[in-house]
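Chapter summary example: a protein plus zinc ion.
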Amino acid sequence: MALMKILQYPDPRLHKIAQPVARVDDDLRRLAADMAETMYAAPGVGLAATQVDRHIRMIVVDVSEEKNQLMTLINPVIVAKDGEAVHEEGCLSVPGIYEKVTRAELIRVRAQNLEGESHEFDAEGLLAVCIQHEIDHLDGKVFVEYLSRLKQDRIRTKLLKQQRETM
Ligand code: ZN
């Protein structure tokens, strides 16, 4: 297993649209394991393949306290949603920035697992937020894009400055 480099906003590669996974094989399972290791090391509660510059539809999520409920979702789709909830979100690609975002409160998700089997489940609370946030990444969208233009500009300037200073 290996830690992967996480792209940092405003890297334009974060806006690429991820392609569907055609085949679940050992290469994909290896990538999923590396993504999980990278997420836990960060530490974070979710990571999309887009964030490690692999533009395929796969995300890893673990919102548990004990970090023992890893979910790997391949080709995830939200098939139903209900309600609205506001949560403060952060992102491994946007370090140090936390902002409130409104999303669906309940979602039903369809995805494949690491055996290639399709399944459906309901999610709420932090898990629902996290899955919606990660699927956005696959669609080339970063959570700060829900904010006002002014806030986005301020975040962009701040992060570019940080990135220059750490280079
Ligand atoms: Zn993110």
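Key point: Helices lie at 26-41, 125-138, 149-166.
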